[in-house]
Amino acid sequence: MTKEEPRPGQATLAGALIIGGSVILVLAAWQRIATLRTLEVQESFEKVVRDPMLSELGWTADDFSMLVRVLCIVGAAAATAAAILGVQVYKRSTSARIALTALTPFLFLGGLVSDGFLTPMVLVGIALLWLQPTRDWYAGRPWVKRYEERRAARLAALRPPASTAPGQPPAPAAPAPAPAPAPTAGAPRPLTGPAPIPPRHPGQRRRTAAERGPRPPALRLACVLTWASSALAVVGLGFGATFASRLGEEIFAQMTREQPKMLEAYQLTESELVATLYLLFVGGALWAVGATVLAGLAYLGHNWARIVLAVSGAAAAAVALFFTLALWPLVVLVGMLGAATWLLTRPEVGRWFLP
């Protein structure tokens, strides 16, 4: 009987991104529909339809509002279906993968009109379903062995050829090894490749981190990147919290000059804006502290912490990427979070966490 291959870490991350991003897209779409009748949105639609490229179509603000409403409904329906199909990803459903791929254009349009900046999470998750080693896992091929073979080939290609110093004769070729004797009938064949992991029986305890052997370098580097990025985030958020009151005053004054109607529509006061900034800074710092704890648990051998940390890292990278539009140094933080998430989903890391 062929041993069933474990699920790759990329497949687990893809399912989490699809489910989480779909839920966010549904909420963003309905939030967008709820604000279509506000004065600010209607004024923005008026500017859009007066654009020279769209003025020839003869559209009005109400027509454009109806188009946005329809696309939001379509995007929300596609996201609902994607969230349900995302559960089937963990069951290696080929039809779910094909259906998710077919929903990609509707998800993209829904995220485009609903201002859902985390919508790319869903698209990235769907793309991961078609990349290695998830593609081999869906096809029923032994992806662990193929990954080890590809890794060995890359290492062999990077290893420099042996060279001789000038003026010295080349080293004599090593004698060919004697052929191994043919195995006799009934003799067991020698095992090749990595030793298989014995199956886990019911009631059998899980292996400890010490019993699994040395930690993969990818796991150690991912934890270091997580701790470093979390420390930078806590320091930056703490520094921002000290100036939250002054920052809130400046933002409120700018909004009063440029968007007075929006303040009247939402009845937003300066104290509420400052409180919101404090909440964002404190919430971000707690998120970073939680990621630090998850990295420690993953380092100790808890697989659930690794999965949650990978999802958290992908979400944090998406949020940081959004704020890079206003603060470009956050690109460094995005790179650190993205690299840590990628390292946590490496196949050798997933194999180390196997029971």
Structure summarized in a few sentences:
This protein has 16 helices and no strands. It is mainly alpha-helical and 355 residues long.
User: Structural class, from helix and strand content?
Assistant: mainly alpha
* Low-confidence residue ranges: 162-166, 185-197
User: How much strand content do the residues show?
Assistant: under 5%
Percent in helix: 55-70%
Number of helices: 16
Which sequence of SSEs, written as H and E, runs from N to C?
A: HHHHHHHHHHHHHHHH
> Strand tally, please?
0
| Shape label | flat
Ends: how far apart? 20 Å
Gyration radius (Cα, Å) is 27 Å
Mean pLDDT across residues: 78
How many domains?
2
Q: Largest beta sheet, briefly?
A: none
List the topology elements.
Elements: H1 9-34, H2 39-49, H3 52-55, H4 61-89, H5 94-102, H6 104-113, H7 120-128, H8 134-139, H9 143-158, H10 217-242, H11 244-258, H12 260-266, H13 270-299, H14 303-323, H15 330-344, H16 347-352
Biased composition (Pro residues): 167-182, 191-201
Transmembrane segments: 12-30, 66-86, 106-131, 221-244, 277-300, 307-340
Keywords: Membrane, Transmembrane, Transmembrane helix
